[in-house]
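Data card: per-record layout.
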Amino acid sequence: MTGNEKDYTAVLLEDVNSNMKAFWEVLSGVKEKGDATFEQVGRMTEKLDSMETRLDSMEIKLDELISAVSLIKGEIEALKTSLSAKADKEKLATLEFKIVRIEKYLKLAQ
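The structure for this 110-residue chain is written out next.
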């Protein structure tokens, strides 16, 4: 090899070496970003798992509330029926009292 060929080869090797260093630096940056993204995905997965647990708990509580509301509605209907029956009894008693007074007034009562 001549002196120029040696110089040219040295320059080429220097250029290849420089390009390889740049390539490895970029690759290292990509790896760091990949690692950071992987960690972030892990944190997000943990948060989603936590949220799923909380949603399950809320669903159970909601089911309990629906059951309680259903029971309360049933009790209200029973109270309505009871109050309606009581009002009818009071109305009947009032009417009976009026009939007795009318009978006495008309002297039909014995």
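Known properties of this structure: The CA atoms of residues 12 and 69 lie 83 Å apart. The helical segments are 3-106.

See the next section for split statistics.
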